[in-house]
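Students often ask why we bother predicting the structure of a whole assembly rather than each chain alone. The short answer is interfaces. A chain on its own may look different once its partners are present, and contacts between molecules only exist in the joint model. In this exercise we take three input lines together and write out one structure for the complete complex. Read the inputs first and try to guess which parts will touch.
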Amino acid sequence: MHPTSHAPRRNRRLVSGPAPVRWLLIAVALAFLGFFLVVPLVAVFTYALQKGVGAYFDAILEPESWSAIRLTLLAAAIAVPLNLVFGLAAAWLIARFRFPGRDVLLTLIDLPFSVSPVIAGLVFVLLFGRQGWLGPWLAEHDIHIIFAVPGIVLATVFVTFPFVVREVLPIMQAQGHDEEEAALSLGASGWRTFLHVTLPKVKWGVLYGVLLCNARAMGEFGAVSVVSGHVRGVTNTLPLHAEILYNEYNLAGAFAVASLLTVLALVTLAVKKYVEWKAESA
Amino acid sequence: MKSPSARRLTAALLSLLLSAVPALGGCSKPGAAQGEPITLLNVSYDPTRELYTDLNAAFAKQWEAKHGTKLVIKQSHGGSGKQARAVIDGLDADVVTLALAYDIDMLHDKGQLIPADWQKRLPSNSSPYTSTIVFVVRKGNPKAIRDWEDLLREGVSVITPNPKTSGGARWNYLAAWGYARRKAGGDDAKAREFISRLFKNVPVLDSGARGATTTFAERGLGDVLIAWENEAFLLTGEVGKDEFEIIVPSVSILAEPPVALVDKNVDRKGTRAAAEAWLQYLYTDEGQELAAKHHFRPRSQKVAAKYAHRFPTVSLFTIDEVFGGWKQSQKQHFDDGGSFDQLYVPQAQ
Amino acid sequence: MHSSARRRVLPGFGLTLGLSWLYLGLIVLLPLSGLFLKTFSLSWAQFWDTVAAPRVLAAYRLSFGAALAAALLNAVFGLLVAWVLVRYRFPGKALVDALVDLPFALPTAVAGLTLTTLYSRNGWYGQHLEALGFQVAFTPVGIVIALTFIGLPFVVRTVQPVLEDIDADVEEAAATLGATPWQVFTRVLFPSVMPALLSGFTLAFARAIGEYGSVVFISGNMPMKTEIAPLLIITRLEQYDYAGATAIAGVMLAVSFAMLLAVNLLQRWTHRRFETRPGTG
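Now the answer. The structure tokens for the assembled complex follow.
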């Protein structure tokens, strides 16, 4: 879409250092990733398949696993768009304007990351639980929030809250806003400018933010475990289901279910490739 | 200046956010008004799923034959204390089947969900089946572990979970304490000394019973695992028949995992009859047989006699005899500053 | 003057300000206020006894120390990985790129179990490390490794988009003018990547402070030695002591907030320094 953005990319090797340095850096990076990511991943699949492929698929295809998959996808499908909208708004706000409380706002946005997952669940219990602030009112109206789907969604939204902002913000800051100002001065509306100028510029940040947010939403364990109630087939997400299988001495089953979540990495790959391909062919 | 469209969007987003929560709440609420099939929720602790899956299936069949209505029993499993907290905070359990009475006591103390004398409402302290604490050692018992004394020997490494976070570990701790106390003629100071030496041999404190089992079985750490008898059976039976064996100490504790009806919930949901019948069913011969099949010691004399060969005789003491009940022991041993904490933190004067 | 000029030009200030605070308030501040309210049910003396007990202090030291070490490791290697993924081509690059998100997708408990399996003394890594005299599982080193694992995507994924978007023109210009690659890196690239790097570091650090699931398996949980602060919160909850649990959590939260705020201020300062150079004013 921007003709200028392609030409430099091809020439980048010019300034990427001499070949030996290049290969050394690649080797170190790959060694690090190998130790920290690939080997653990292999271990997960080794465990998952230790009872054979048949047992692997049995564990994944049992009805309780399916309901866990559905719930996990549902929670992510609600949490990610909400955090995306908020993330874009907050990133725009923080990158483009100076106002009192800006640093406090940014820091508060980071806060859910440093809240222990256990506490992230507990705060919703303190709010919506039978003994919580809103508990009596909710009970009176027969509304179930915790130990039901809404609680799981809320906890997921909470723990994935900062991702999009945090991914979009640095890139929005790095790019400045001259183009937006130009578009606006040429008479484009605020929304048009945002959609056609800003969004394309920060698309990589948005993409990574959504991918991370999604991965974390599906993998979240601690906070969701506090608000879920663990009712089998009803309020168990995939990570919780994995834990339960483990506690029942079904180690292979637990890892089989967990390995399903790592398939997400492949989906990530596909999405990213697709976006890249679209960006280049546009 | 805000443009009108921006203001409209703000309003739309606002209402969306505000409406999202109650709307979701509405659609997920369990169908309370549905007349026909009855749904019960049993909130239980960790490794009891297979036991209750069997029990539920058998009971549901019986119930349907008798009443002509369908009965669905849902299960929830997790750490005993965490499960109790969930019920206190609003998880709609009809019945709870937990690892220790203290957790059910809290349903009364913190949640006013059940009467204080809940444990007297069902026979045998409301524990339809029992278990005890035993040792699991590596095949051939290379360190020649026979009894609690052997766990203090130098060079013996003992695996037990953290009693602060695991209900099962509290039974382990009290079993050791009770043994030492009995041996010293009721001297608690001697028992404390014994425990302190025992925990010098504990290299790792896993947060749960299952984690400790993994540490022992998969990581190859430790010479002895202190465990519930039924979990020891699970470990030696399924995972490592040729790797481990069970050693039964001379004296141990009678572990009584209790069950209770959650009065406030069943009365609100109108499920009292079914929930009570389910609890009674646990005490029937059929229920007792299933408990024995899943490695719990049956209460019924008749069924116990039938399975006597599976469960070795141990001299068992109860928590009430030695410690004056769960509340007392929780306070004395496991709450902050209790005897367990004193093992690790030098007491400030 | 500068800011008011901007505000006039760029739209959406009111909308985004309102939306941000509203959403933040509903999702984060309202629930967290409940936490502090619960803490206030303690008397000052009770609160102090809870949070200043030697065991709790030891746990705080461990949690914050291990989180810092893990975040530093991630900053160094994350920058390297991002650089390699953006700038170089090598076989299997797309796959490696996809794998970076794995630590988020894997449930933390599974990650903890897996890492413990690898590093315990009969594990793939552990047996070799043991031979060399290192013990990783059930020591603070194991905790740092678990925290590095769960925080790994942060730095890579915050730095990556910025690197992808940096105009190579500036670098090329610098190179043409005779700058060495190292000079190009330190003078041109590093300053523009710095905000993103700091941001990633902060996130990895913040996340590591509170982490529980992946750590409990590998830490061994020995009081005073390898007991992390979130574990103490759990033990409080096991005693049905919600107020004590929230007190420990509240202190952690307050300290994290102060640290995050400091980093954000630092970041704004570095950003401004960088921003003024290309002549924005």
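Check your guess against this: Chain A touches chain C through 117 residues (CB under 8 Å).
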